[in-house]
Design goal:
Layout lengths: L3 E2 L10 H13 L9 H21 L6 E4 L2 H16 L3 E4 L5 H14 L2 E4 L10 H8 L6 E4 L13 H10 L3 E5 L18 E5 L10 E5 L25 H16 L1 H22 L4 E2 L13 E5 L4 H4 L2 H7 L2 E2 L15 H6 L2 H4 L3 E5 L6 H16 L1
Parallel strand pairs: 1-11, 3-4, 3-5, 5-6, 6-7
Antiparallel strand pairs: 2-8, 7-8, 9-10, 10-12
């Protein structure tokens, strides 16, 4: 049976070079980075080198990079600390954010009594700038806007520079979950008006369990995790330096090969979209996911022309044929409520038809896409 992995928005294959660097780190630098002896100092040097490397690529300062266990922790940490430490009384977000943001904001509303406002979306799932500005000027409360750069289910890309500038104009803080963006798009934090953003290594061919938060210098945020002075006192706990080394290597390689690899993957997406339109013409692309300019080149989300009952067997059928893909975020794959993103932007009749996300990487081939589309077509016509 052919095996085809098309769930790269959930996680990516780790590069061989990354695995080799991590193995080397585990073998050679096993001291605790917080220890003062030579073994500890060697490990600490590795950690700080990684921080400086990442900061240089982002045009940030090393002190603005805080290593975390991934995007979810980083999102939680930033939102919670902004309310606790910076006097944020209102969070403005959208109903199609990752649950790391949505659920955190909902808990903050309960715990701290903050206001939680949702910006209106257009029919494709993009935030309406006019409504965002209306919310920003609604009252004088201290506000934080949290809108993800690239949606993890439908791939829409927001105008992060325009939103950041609008927040700046109205004195609001701006946070973005950029987990689907960092490693796939160039960044320059001196040009993008943003206070906080997050990244996860496993989205760009690095290891799971490691990511980082970008926290603008002199933000005023204080620690959320206590117990040690690691991460400049901001996040206690022994640094997983082997994972940090893996993050660094994956990050460096992602940006060294960004032009070539993004062109390759964009070509795969374009091929997939065109072939689906040819072979299953009744298929619809959710959000802007069929548009190569308005959505990320790494994924597409299609709605297939058959009923919900038949759709219940779709993922199982694809899995049995060796094809890995998903209905949406892997974080909610066990939920029977469906995609909260699609529930927000689709009409009830549209939700009756099954939707599925295919996401691509440098390791995919056109032959794999032909196989997947062939299986989809056969299932659709059966």
């Amino acid at each position: 049976m052919q095996k085809v992995y098309l769930d790269n928005a959930a996680t990516t294959q780790v590069r061989e070079e990354v695995i080799a660097k991590m193995q080397e780190a585990l073998a050679l630098y096993y001291g605790n980075p917080s220890s003062t002896h030579s073994y500890g100092r060697s490990a600490k040097t590795v950690v700080e080198k990684a921080r400086k490397t990442i900061a240089k690529i982002l045009n940030a300062q090393p002190s603005e990079i805080i290593f975390t266990s991934g995007g979810t922790e980083a999102d939680n940490m930033i939102l919670r600390c902004a309310v606790r430490d910076l006097g944020v009384k209102t969070i403005i977000t959208s109903k199609i954010e990752h649950h790391a943001v949505l659920h955190t904001a909902e808990e903050l509303e309960k715990e701290y009594g903050i206001s939680l406002w949702f910006v209106d979306l257009d029919t494709y799932g993009n935030p309406k700038m006019s409504h965002l500005e209306e919310l920003l000027t609604k009252d004088d409360s201290k506000k934080l806007v949290s809108l993800m750069h690239v949606n993890n289910e439908i791939g829409n890309i927001i105008d992060i520079d325009a939103i950041g500038a609008l927040c700046q104009e109205h004195g609001a803080l701006f946070h973005s979950d950029t987990v689907q963006s960092v490693g796939h798009y160039p960044w320059d934090v001196q040009k993008t008006p943003i206070d906080f953003f997050t990244a996860a290594a496993h989205k760009f061919h690095g290891p799971k369990g490691i990511g980082f938060a970008f926290i603008r210098k002199n933000s005023g945020l204080k620690p959320m995790i206590f117990g040690g002075s690691q991460e400049r006192g901001f996040r206690a706990g022994t640094e997983p330096f082997h994972n940090i080394v893996g993050l660094e290597e994956a990050f460096v390689l992602a940006y060294e090969h960004l032009d070539a690899e993004s062109k390759l993957v964009k070509g795969l997406k374009q091929y997939f979209v065109e072939r689906v339109k040819q072979e299953i013409p009744e298929t619809t692309f959710n959000g802007f996911s069929g548009d190569l300019e308005k959505s990320t080149y790494t994924l597409t989300n299609i709605r297939l022309p058959f009923d919900k009952q038949k759709g219940l067997m779709l993922l199982f059928h694809l899995d049995m044929k060796g094809i890995a893909c998903s209905k949406g975020s892997a974080c909610q794959s066990g939920s029977n409520l469906g995609s909260h993103v699609l529930n927000e932007i689709l009409e009830p009749k549209e939700l009756e038809k099954p939707s599925i996300r295919f996401s691509f990487s440098k390791y995919n081939t056109k032959e794999e896409l032909d196989y997947a589309i062939g299986v989809l077509k056969e299932f659709t016509e059966d």
